[in-house]
UniProtKB/TrEMBL annotation:
Family to which the UniProt record says this protein belongs: Belongs to the class-V pyridoxal-phosphate-dependent aminotransferase family. SerC subfamily.
Pathway: Amino-acid biosynthesis; L-serine biosynthesis; L-serine from 3-phospho-D-glycerate: step 2/3
Catalytic activity: O-phospho-L-serine + 2-oxoglutarate = 3-phosphooxypyruvate + L-glutamate
Domain annotation Aminotransferase class V: ranges: 8-108, 117-379
Keywords: Amino-acid biosynthesis, Aminotransferase, Pyridoxal phosphate, Serine biosynthesis, Transferase
GO biological process, alphabetically ordered: L-serine biosynthetic process
Molecular function terms from GO: O-phospho-L-serine:2-oxoglutarate aminotransferase activity; pyridoxal phosphate binding
Organism, scientific name: Hyphodiscus hymeniophilus
Protein name: phosphoserine transaminase
Transferase listed as a keyword: yes
Cofactor: pyridoxal 5'-phosphate
Lineage: Eukaryota, Fungi, Dikarya, Ascomycota, Pezizomycotina
Residues of the full protein shown: 2 to 432 of 591
GO CC terms, sorted: cytoplasm
Keyword Transferase included in the entry's annotation: yes
Amino acid sequence: PDRSDITYFGAGPALLPTTVLETAAKSLVNYNDTGLGLAEHSHRSELATKIVEEAKADLASYLDIPDDYEVLFMQGGGSGEFSATVYNLVNVWVERRRQRILQEAGIGAGKEISEDVILTELRKAVEQDLKIDYLVTGSWSLKASQEAARLVGPEYVNIVADGRKTNDGKFGKIPDEKDWKLSKNAAMVYYCDNETVDGVEFPSFPKALEPVGEDGPIVVADMSSNILSRRIPIKNFSLIFFGAQKNLGSTGITVVIIKKSLLPPAVGTPAPSLMRKLGLPVGPIVLSYETIAKNKSLYNTLSIFDVYIAGQVLKKALATFADKVDGQQILAEKKSKLIYAALDAHPESYKVVPDKSSRSRMNICFRVTHGDSIDAAEKLFLKQATEKGLTGLKGHRSKSSQIPFKELIASSQYPKAMALQTKSRDEVNAW
Ligand code: PLP
């Protein structure tokens, strides 16, 4: 089939506007009449710097990112950020504690303190106080929390709430905020704004994470699969990250929006030797926000071609939506409402997995329950959908969680279901 014959619903990598791809294809052969393709130009060249800076500025404009935030282009994907957030924010936690110890000892006011005393105090602080908070509402935040436990040790990881515990053992509902168990002064409170596999999305910024700002918690959000789909109160977050491949561009770059108060000169990085003495991990240099920020995202070779594609998507979005991301939000809400309404109108055939309170506007997880066998019904649904040019509908299904249809109905335990990305040919072609 031709590109225009297909409506593709796959969760990622997602569809890109055809005109962006056509321009990009030309740039891949000969960029701006330089006689060289974009992927052949050095990331150290002036044109590469310009592409990076323009993409940053366009993202800042589209999302209204305030001046006290830095935008970083990195590599390693969302999974790389599961690790990077831990390394960097544990560093910040230790450095702030070190500064407090110095201050309390009267350093700067003529007093002295030995390195041994600092170390003893810090060890005590780490043992008593260091916590990294995770809200586990789906498989991606679960993975992030597991990575933290792997890197620093499970004793430092606090699960604020686990969506499975209040929903029959399955993800599908964000636990009530009054049941969240937040730590005091955690290195961060982490959550995934849209759980791609489970179809669970936070309806808005959680009240429990207020007050926002320097006196509030350090809030970190994974927005890999819903960035650019609604207005976000950036100032409520210390850090937002997302892989580009779902909602911004092609596979290969990761974007971090970070508050400058978490970077030098506001806060330095403790010496690696100190972190080792505290039994805490020292991260790889390519995951260091300080290093990436200092080098304006060009510490090492970056895929400029992928930054270029993201930049072109942003330019198109800026030209398409007069009220920027608000315009895209209206579209995302309209489309998801249409699909949920169609599914809800036929309860004999479809069952939406997540609870109404936590339904994602981006990934619609549902099961086809028509007839005696869910497997046969879904096979038939997928076959007939493909015949109509509706592709990528088969979701992320974990085999181990599949249970027979009758049992499923009886127990109302619906396994991870079909994820449906609400991006369509019409939407993309309309761009
Ligand atoms: N976070 C979310 C919400 C995702 O949907 C994904 C991937 O699908 C990831 C993280 C992992 O991203 P990556 O494959 O870029 O490591």
